[in-house]
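Need a sequence for this fold. Nothing fancy.
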């Protein structure tokens, strides 16, 4: 196998509410300001959930960041990219994602955390919105849409026994168990505020951090599955850390991740 053959695409998407769509669908004819439409819908969601969540459904969102870690068949890290950098245009990011999945890396498997519940449906909706084809994805019954397909490894599904339990703590917990940063200064619920402030770079940095956490959790699941042993996994982790150190000037988001890096030190 060639050293640069990509076998896995570990990715994450950050998104924001589509104020125009919310206004058109939820409040037609009321001519609400975009911000008011979002706030009103969020309040309705809070009221309906007894104050537990104002998260706007995936159908009313669009992407502002798609970050991808390219991983070789031996599970080593080849590269990390943010699509359509530095413009981060939703239509172009979506086009590049489907181009990569369908053509450039058609032999690679997708790896996500809750990708079946959010990231993939969001990007399917973007293909619908912009008129992009994803023929193999939609027509091949063994492609990433199939829950049990090897073409999409959703780590939330995998670790929760396909939702037999609720994975409380989520990716953040799984990352911290193995010593990786998990959530740092930025949390998912801050993305919309960052977007309103025009801080797309910060959002993409946060997205890269989630991708790295997903990658390291993915490695540990391959130990559980017996594809690699723990000694090999730790060698790969060390190699990945070297990659981050060597590329932190090219990818500044890596600096914060390295500053919060922890090695695997199991307890009790």
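Here you go.
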């Amino acid at each position: 196998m060639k050293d640069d053959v990509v076998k896995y695409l570990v990715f994450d998407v950050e998104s924001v509410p589509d104020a125009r769509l919310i206004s058109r669908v939820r409040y037609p004819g009321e001519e609400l300001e975009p911000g008011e439409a979002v706030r009103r819908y969020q309040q309705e969601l809070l009221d309906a959930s007894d104050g537990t969540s104002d998260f706007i459904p995936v159908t009313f969102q669009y992407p502002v960041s798609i970050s991808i870690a390219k991983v070789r068949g031996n599970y080593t890290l080849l590269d990390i990219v943010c699509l359509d950098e530095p413009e981060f245009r939703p239509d172009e990011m979506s086009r590049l994602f489907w181009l990569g999945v369908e053509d450039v890396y058609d032999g690679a498997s997708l790896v996500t955390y809750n990708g079946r519940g959010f990231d993939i449906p969001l990007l399917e909706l973007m293909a619908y919105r912009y008129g992009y084809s994803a023929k193999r994805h939609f027509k091949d019954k063994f492609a990433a849409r199939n829950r049990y397909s090897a073409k999409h490894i959703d780590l939330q599904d995998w670790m929760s026994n396909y939702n037999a339990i609720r994975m409380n703590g989520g990716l953040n917990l799984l990352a911290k168990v193995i010593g990786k940063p998990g959530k740092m200064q930025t949390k998912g619920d801050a993305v919309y505020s960052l977007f309103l402030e025009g801080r797309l770079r910060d959002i993409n940095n946060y997205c890269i951090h989630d991708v790295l956490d997903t990658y390291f959790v993915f490695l540990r699941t391959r130990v559980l599955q017996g594809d690699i042993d723990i000694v090999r996994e730790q060698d790969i982790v060390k190699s990945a850390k070297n990659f981050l150190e060597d590329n932190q000037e090219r990818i500044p988001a890596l600096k914060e991740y390295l500053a919060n890096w922890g090695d695997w030190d199991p307890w009790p």
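For context: The radius of gyration is 19 Å.
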